[in-house]
Amino acid sequence: MDRIRIVGGNKLNGVIPISGAKNAALPLMIASLLTDDTLTLENVPHLADVEQLIRILGNHGADISVNGRRERQGESYARTIHFTCRNIVDTTAPYELVSKMRASFWVIGPLLAREGKARVSLPGGCAIGTRPVDLFIEGLQALSANIEIDSGYVNATAPAGGLIGARYTFPKVSVGATHVLMMAATLANGTTVLGNAAREPEVVDLANCLNAMGAKITGQGTSTITIEGVRSLSGARHRVLPDRIETGTYAMAVAMTGGDVILEDTDMALLDTALEAIRRAGAEITETNSGIRVVRNGAGIKPVDIVTDPFPGFPTDLQAQFMGLMTMAKGTSHITETIFENRFMHVQELARLGAKISLSGQTAKIEGVGRLKGAPVMATDLRASVSLVIAGLAAEGETMVSRVYHLDRGFERLEEKLTRCGAHVERVSD
Ligand code: EPZ
After folding, report:
1. For ligand 1, what atom is nearest to the CA of residue 383?
2. What is the pTM of this model?
3. 24-239: what fold?
């Protein structure tokens, strides 16, 4: 199994191209099941999760062709992919596929809306928390779906004339359930109003793409989304928005190591709260013609307290990386995780690098140690893994990160992007 070897201590200097967002690409790809026409997505990142979803959509009958494989757009290998699902050949999403990637559960929305039925495996356990699907079920029932759970599968059927638009308010903000309800409601009879909807940029990106396909969605980006059902959707061409989590991760890496880096092809507005926290920690962040410039020269890292929250709050997907940064602060900081109950698996591993962190419920207390020392580490999820990579960049000596497959799920060409900025990072195959 591959590992990543990092020799820390180098400052980062140069340009890092930011890829298309994984968490936008996945629901956008799933939206292709809503139409028999071709949906073309540009700027799709080349990631293990995308490849897995290509397999899953193929299973439902989508014909998928990848253009410009390895085509260079600026410095990145962004790809343009065409999805055509003339006929849905299978409305079942089996356990073998859904258990590998939770987001594949989301096919339930389009399958139910277009075919009137779907049989989708429950996603099962997950390293960062229990992550139930009750909100999806409740929301689809509000659209008049009949739902039964049997032998680990959710069996959903729509009334004879199709789903029926309704008013539904989520008891808790959920990105995935907002994606699914929005997709399902595009083809429902009548109007659906979703209250307490997720406001994440990826939800806005999906709504914009659905509108380009002929849907009638308004209010995306606010907590009330209105969807007027239409009879059918057509194809469209849509560019996946930049990855705000990748952007924030590299910004934190520069804040940790020091240096001067331009993050290209991204947008500050996607991650205001996180950038503000990095600024308060001591990095200079400015918008330039070519992207976001992150600089830290000389100044020490200051402790900053954060609480994760749904957008526009501090993203849970940057919590582990920010904890890495705080281990090097001069002073004590607190990080409270409010989205997932078990998203502190990186704490033990950061401690192996010399960090001093104690946990009390959902809050971590980080006593800055000023410097970290390299060690062998491993992580159980994507964002935790990358927090170890960026901590390794700032640590003295060698850090070996195992279970690299987690990183390959969500960070495109990580080693190459960092190496070009002067980091010593390499993939080691055993
Ligand atoms: C999305 O997951 C992201 N995944 C996650 O990124 C991200 O951490 C999360 O949103 C929060 O921002 C993708 O976009 C593919 P949720 P999602 O439903 O949609 C609870 C990464 O590293 N909940 O917003 O699955 C749930 O348990 C990943 O890229 C219910 O209780 O997250 C959690 O506590 C990890 N019942 C909270 O809501 C439900 O039916 C928010 O989860 C659904 C969710």
Report:
1. 22
2. 0.96
3. UDP-n-acetylglucosamine1-carboxyvinyl-transferase; Chain (3.65.10)
